Each structure stands twice: as structure tokens, then as C-alpha cells.
Amino acid sequence: MFFILSKTLSHLVMPLTIVMGCLVISRIVKHGWWRRRFLWGGIILLFIFSNEFIANEMMKAWEVETKPYDSMRKYKVGIVLTGAVMAQIKPDDRVYFSKGADRVVHAVQLYKLGLIRKIVVSGGSGRIVDIKEREADRFKEVMILMGVPDSVIFVENETRNTFESAREVKKILQVLHYSSEECLLITSAFHMRRSLACYEKADIGMDTFSTDFYAHQSRYYPDAFFIPKVEALLLWNKLVKEWVGFIAYWLAGYI
To answer: Which helix (H) or strand (E) holds 105?
Structure first.
């Protein structure tokens, strides 16, 4: 039940949903005082959520910074979390990635630079309706295609969320006799806070390596302040969804 709720409730608090709710209510309520406030509330929120500067600064504050390769020590294993495969696209003789493809590319680069010796890929299907496609298997397929030996890649492909992933990866690390100090957690910058919290809850807190950033360097141009951008709404959608997930995990005792 929690899995289904965590996947659906976030849609109710998406920025555009809130704006539309305010505008609809402003047309329904009869009291002029409330009507004006809901109308202006919707307009103001639309400006905030479509403002590139505000959206970028909020995302930048939430994302966890990454590290230059030349400042990193070596690790025995890199743990790569899935969540970037686009399923059910034809033809199915290749892997289709969303923006999160950096999780794969940077993990392979870490391996080839000698900064990680082995790779654990964790993640099954995060969909409410299981389509039997396992993201971890597709990640491994691409990693092998990019030159990583099959023998150094370990796959956990049955978990549906980050909390389950942390528990299952802990079992793999125990079998491999690796301590958390020898591990590096690799996932998207916006998802790193919740991921690390789940792994710390499982008593395997570790160093982190963030990938596929959504935020960019601050831009102090007139269009960033005053011109509404669809991209800003998309940033807020990603951010709000992650915040809702973080709160849901906290309420459920996952973090």
C-alpha cells in the first residue's frame, strides 16, 4: 500500500496542479474576497513556479555536489542505483535512457579510472504495474557494452524503491565482505539525499558520487527573472516529487 501511495500522492501537490486548483476554486466560490485571493494566489504561484531563477536556485540548493576525479580516493565497489531506463519503447533491441544515463556513464568512467574495482547495480521495477523488465539488468547490459567485464558487475534486480535497495545491497556487501567505508554510492544529485538516508538507516552509510545534475550555474539575466519558462515547471515537478518522497520515507520510518 505504501508503495502505491508514494507513487500517486505526489501528483496531487505538483506545482501546476496547485495553480490549476487555485484558479478553478476562484471560479467556483461565490464570496468575492475568497475569489480574489484564490485568483491572485494562482497567478502568483504560476509566476514563482515558472521562474527560471527561483527554480534553478531551489534545485541547486537541494542537489548534492559531486567530486572531481583527481580528489577522490579508491573504493572497492561502486553502488549504482537505477531509475533511468525508459521501458516499453520499440524496437526493444537497445536500451533507452532518460536524463539519468549519467549514472551508467560516470560509473563506467570511475571503473576505468581505477577508482572503483567492482560495481553493484541495484533496482528492479519502480512501476505500480510490474512489466517484468528489470532496470538493473539493462544497466549491466550497457556497462558490458561499454567495456566493463561481466565478472565485476553484481546485480540486484528485485527491489522497487530505495529503501528496499539498501536492505538488499547490504546483504550483497556482507557476502562480498565489503565494509561501508569501501563503498561509493552513485545516483542522481537530486536523489542523493534520500538515497544516502536509506543506506544510513540500513547501517551502511558511505561516501557519495552525484550524477546528472538538473541545476546549472546561477544566471543573472533579465529573461531568467521575468520570462516564464516551461523548464522551470519541470524542475519544480522533479523537486516536489523528491520532497514528497523524502517526507513519505520519513513518515514510514525508512529514513
So the answer is: helix 102-112
Placement of cell 537530486 in the chain: 190
pTM metric for this prediction:
0.89
- Spatial distance between the Cα atoms of 62 and 60, rounded to a whole number of angstroms: 5
Residue 87, beta-bridge partner list: none
Coil, helix or strand at residue 108: helix
What is the full per-residue pLDDT of the chain (255 aa) written as tens digits? Answer: 555 555 566 677 889 999 999 999 999 998 888 999 999 999 999 999 999 999 999 999 999 999 999 999 999 999 999 988 888 788 888 888 888 899 999 999 999 999 999 999 998 765 555 556 789 999 999 999 999 999 999 999 988 899 999 999 999 999 989 999 999 999 999 999 999 999 999 999 999 999 999 999 998 888 889 999 999 999 999 999 999 999 999 999 999
**DSSP conformation letters of 119-146:** EEEE----SSS--S--HHHHHHHHHHHT
**What does residue 245 show for φ and ψ, rounded to 5 degrees?**
-60, -40
Residue for cell digits 557476502? 175
